[in-house]
Amino acid sequence: MNTLSLMGITLAVVLTSVGLYGIFRSRNVIRILLSSEIILNSSILFLFSAASALGRTYTPVLFSVFAIGMALTEVVVAFAAIILYYRLKGRLEVS
After folding, report:
1. Which residues 6+ apart lie within 8 Å of 56 measured at CB?
2. Which of 32, 13, 23 is nearest to 74 (CA)?
């Protein structure tokens, strides 16, 4: 296991912690959405770092392409839901 893959795994764990903190402590819908995106991107980073540590560099490529496509779809649907929520409630705070 090389130092670069350990740094990637450590960074992925830190980013996941930051994302979870943002989800559980924020009341703003947009901050919650951005925190979930941080968690998704940290999972992709963790997958690549773990594959690099195991010596399998081409294994996570299909998963990452699928995950990035799902992230784009999630952003579009979430922003549509945010616009609808704002039209109904008049604010972006979650109660």
Report:
1. none
2. 32
Alpha-helical regions (H) of the chain: 3-25, 29-54, 61-89
How far, in whole angstroms, is CA 9 from its chain's centroid? 15
Tell me the domains of the chain and their CATH numbers.
Answer: 3-89 (1.10.287.3510)
pTM of the model: 0.80
| Residue 2 DSSP class | -
pLDDT digits (tens, 9 = 90+) for 2-54: 888 899 999 999 999 999 999 999 988 889 889 988 998 898 889 888 888 88
